[in-house]
Design goal:
The protein is mainly alpha-helical. The chain has twelve helices and no strands. It has one domain.
Length: 310
């Protein structure tokens, strides 16, 4: 079956981005818990769930292989720091009423990836791609001018996740063992902080209501599950399809911020988002066109169509 027709791949990809898109609703229920404490629980419990899953699948050997390669382990320590910054800013922003700006960060993330690809991977852009990047830059400058400050939440989220993705792209490590290693190297810090919070009397787990306790433990599951679903989908679907599906996440974030939590979205902010959406439309059109050309070339050579890899 062609990867483009994989119903299981589409379902897994849509589910992954839906979980990421509705994460603000989940985190909003934890708004009384400090962001740093939420991140520590997210690290600790995601490490637990991922290692348990790998144990059941007999994949712990892959983790041991990483831990015995100091150079690779060092690079994963760096990616762990980037993803921690991303998580911390995201959780803080959601719990302080900036969900709309978090969605902006993930809207511009693909275009930041393009810019990083130019400088670090020496990739070349065509005219349509340059137009998309220029529109995104204009949108950010416009939002900065109108708000009187740069959209630092969106820029931090986009840059930290793009740098994380760039480093992971050039590493020879699978998604699940890589994330397991990242959470494992962060675990001593996260566990130490949670123990300190408990000693100081500010720990939430075990001292809050049942719902909060379950949500803190479940933060690990909502970290690990969408990553697994995404990795599964990326192997079955063309990269262009994954690229379209990724906009489910920020779109749901935007809708939850505006419709559920009544964050402002009008005037200058709406104009800035419209510029971003136009840039993304051009970027998506170019990606779909490139995918069709690649698939056509593959068919002419008698090869299978190009599919996504991660």
């Amino acid at each position: 079956m062609s990867a483009r027709l994989s119903g299981r791949g589409l379902a897994a990809g849509a589910a992954a981005f839906t979980i990421w898109g509705t994460l603000p609703i989940y985190l909003h229920e934890l708004r009384e818990v400090p962001a740093l404490q939420i991140i520590a629980h997210r690290i600790a419990w995601s490490c637990f769930f991922i290692l348990a899953f790998m144990l059941l699948r007999g994949q712990l050997g892959a983790l041991r292989g990483i831990l015995t390669r100091p150079a690779l382990l060092g690079r994963l320590v760096v990616t762990a720091l980037f993803i921690t910054i991303n998580w911390l800013v995201y959780v803080w922003a959601v719990n302080h009423g900036h969900i709309v700006e978090t969605s902006l960060g993930y809207y511009i993330n693909p275009l930041v990836n393009v810019v990083l690809g130019i400088y670090f991977l020496h990739e070349r852009l065509n005219r349509l791609q340059w137009t998309a990047v220029a529109l995104a830059a204009i949108a950010v400058l416009f939002l900065t001018f109108e708000a009187g400050r740069p959209p630092w939440i969106a820029l931090t989220l986009a840059m930290s996740f793009s740098l994380y993705g760039l480093l992971r792209k050039v590493m020879s490590v699978e998604a699940l063992p890589g994330l397991a290693t990242e959470t494992l190297v962060l675990l001593p810090v996260a566990a130490g902080y949670l123990i300190w919070c408990e000693h100081a009397g500010s720990g939430a787990l075990g001292h809050a209501n049942l719902e909060t306790n379950l949500l803190l433990v479940g933060a690990g599951l909502v970290t690990a599950l969408p990553l697994f679903l995404f990795a599964y989908a990326a192997r079955l679907l063309p990269y262009s399809t994954v690229g379209v599906l990724q906009y489910i996440g920020p779109s749901l974030q935007l809708l939850s911020g505006v419709l559920l939590y009544h964050e402002p979205f009008a005037g200058a902010r709406a104009v800035g988002f419209a510029l971003i959406w136009t840039a993304l439309f051009l970027y998506a059109v170019d990606g779909l066109r490139t995918a069709r050309l690649n698939n056509a070339g593959a068919r002419e050579k008698g090869a299978r169509p190009l599919t996504a890899t991660r």
